[in-house]
Structure to design on (540 residues):
């Protein structure tokens, strides 16, 4: 064969031959395919084959197992070092990798996905770490400074703005102004590589909101069922880039993915993030993730429970439980919320504790949410009284300025459970602080046939006290107004363009008459119920 002349290969059935003009003196088997070659050119450039030839002197057949496809890895596998010839394949592959691959976004992404089959070899050559480092650097750099992503996609562009690749309109769009342009491309990486990339980006100082955005994007791509938990921030599918057109979607084990990304999630607060976490928790319960992962999710949700919505909190029961909703999970979240509040809020002196603080406002938001949650799950006929009680008592009594929501939840529970004994109803009603019921709630409760007789009596007593207090306050106001000089016809109060005549005395008098009438009715009802209870007692 003349020096420098390129060799040609041809195939016959399962065998490949070289047209070097010389008979083959060695056969190398790769994946059950036979290659008929020549010893000298192979042993002079490949250390591995040279060693195998010396080890197998009595045979002209060599079998190579687990051949990597990346040229860089293949050169290292075949030991094509410079000691077996100047400018050997390993040196040339390494030079090309550093000059071209790590400086080009698309090539880095394609190289990373190609390494997934031979992770150990690629790691030994630091291919993965160098590509991840390059990707993390390019992702946190303003692409407009370097013409990205135009440079990384090629220099040709169609009149409509789509990127041309080898003259073909790909449909991919150039998006140099978006800071999340890289989300789609990195979503093609396997879970282990994606996790490594996120950790490297975090170490590089990429803002947590960007990392969270990438994690949310990746999760929604592979975790089915997260689509409806997008809230305000709509993460629509992004236009595919040249990099993604050269890659295949990752094959993902959903359970492994979820358990992995939960460890990556930062300690972050936000309405959309809280909704995302609750969506993750639903998927986690369906997939049956480990306890550590589930507990971590519940803690993260508990830290921002005041931002949760009722529909997101209504987590169905996916196990063999009789109840419709997973109230055990919600109760744990409430406990995590309380623990996080204790940690975040330092001790305040009594003189300050009574004032409205951010912590007290947060507690009131959560109490309202929990009361609404109990009202929703109360219709479940399989919900035990002990569970509704533990949910109600999960929050401290001070968290509710009014107990109207708590009363409504218990009323709906009694309506859905008419068979409950009076004793159990009384025990549940003891949760309510009747002094914290509004006048309207008291009026409703006093006529509510679903409540036990003793509860009726308590409600009537406190309603009577409230009305007497209101009547006393009204009397004082009327007395003060009566001591005022009479209004002249010209005394007109004008505000915001509306003209009104002040008639406070007349309004107060009407209100007092109504209050007196109601107090009289309550006293009669109160006395009647006391007599009825006495008769019941003697009959026993």
């Amino acid at each position: 064969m003349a020096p420098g002349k390129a060799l040609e290969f041809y195939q016959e059935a399962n065998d490949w031959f070289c047209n070097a003009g010389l008979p083959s003196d060695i056969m190398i088997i790769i994946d059950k395919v036979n290659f008929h070659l020549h010893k000298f050119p192979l042993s002079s450039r490949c250390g591995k084959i040279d060693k195998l030839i010396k080890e197998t002197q009595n045979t002209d057949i060599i079998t190579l197992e687990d051949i990597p496809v990346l040229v860089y890895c293949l050169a290292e596998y075949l030991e094509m070092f410079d000691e077996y010839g100047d400018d050997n394949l390993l040196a040339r592959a390494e030079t090309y990798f550093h000059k071209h691959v790590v400086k080009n976004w698309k090539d880095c992404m394609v190289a990373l996905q190609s390494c997934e089959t031979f992770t150990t070899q690629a790691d030994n050559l630091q291919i993965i770490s160098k590509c991840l480092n390059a990707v993390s650097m390019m992702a946190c750099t303003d692409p407009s400074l370097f013409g990205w992503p135009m440079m990384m996609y090629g220099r040709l562009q169609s009149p409509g703005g789509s990127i041309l690749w080898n003259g073909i309109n790909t449909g991919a769009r150039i998006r140099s102004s978006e800071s999340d342009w890289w989300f789609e491309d990195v979503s093609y990486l396997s879970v282990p590589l994606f996790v490594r990339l996120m950790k490297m980006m975090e170490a590089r100082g990429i803002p947590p909101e960007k990392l969270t955005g990438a994690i949310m994007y990746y999760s929604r791509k592979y975790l089915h069922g997260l689509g409806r938990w997008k809230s305000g921030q709509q993460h629509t599918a992004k236009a595919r880039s040249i990099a993604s057109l050269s890659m295949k979607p990752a094959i993902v084990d959903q359970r492994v993915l979820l358990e992995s990304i939960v460890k990556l999630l930062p300690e972050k607060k936000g309405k959309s993030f809280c909704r995302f976490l609750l969506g993750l928790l639903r998927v986690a319960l369906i997939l049956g993730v480990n306890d550590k992962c589930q507990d971590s999710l519940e803690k993260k949700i508990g830290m921002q429970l005041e931002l949760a919505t009722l529909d997101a909190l209504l987590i169905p029961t996916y196990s063999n439980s009789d109840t419709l909703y997973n109230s055990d999970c919600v109760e744990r979240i409430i406990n995590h919320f309380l623990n996080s509040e204790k940690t975040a809020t330092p001790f305040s002196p009594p003189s300050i504790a009574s004032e409205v603080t951010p912590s007290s406002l947060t507690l009131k938001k959560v109490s309202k949410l929990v009361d609404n949650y109990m009202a929703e799950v109360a219709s479940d006929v399989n919900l035990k009284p002990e569970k509704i009680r533990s949910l109600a008592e999960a929050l401290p009594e001070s968290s509710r300025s009014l107990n109207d929501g708590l009363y409504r939840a218990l009323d709906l529970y009694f309506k859905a459970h008419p068979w409950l004994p009076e004793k159990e109803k009384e025990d549940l009603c003891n949760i309510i602080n009747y002094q914290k019921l509004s006048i309207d709630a008291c009026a409703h409760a006093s006529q509510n046939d679903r409540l036990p007789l003793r509860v009726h009596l308590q409600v009537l007593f406190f309603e009577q006290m409230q009305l007497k207090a209101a009547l006393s306050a009204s009397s004082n106001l009327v007395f003060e107004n009566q001591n005022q000089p009479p209004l002249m016809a010209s005394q007109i109060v004008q505000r915001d363009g509306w003209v009104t005549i002040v008639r406070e005395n007349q309004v107060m008098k009407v209100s007092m008459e109504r209050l007196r009438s109601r107090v009289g009715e309550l006293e009669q009802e109160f006395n009647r119920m006391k007599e009825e209870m006495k008769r019941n007692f003697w009959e026993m």
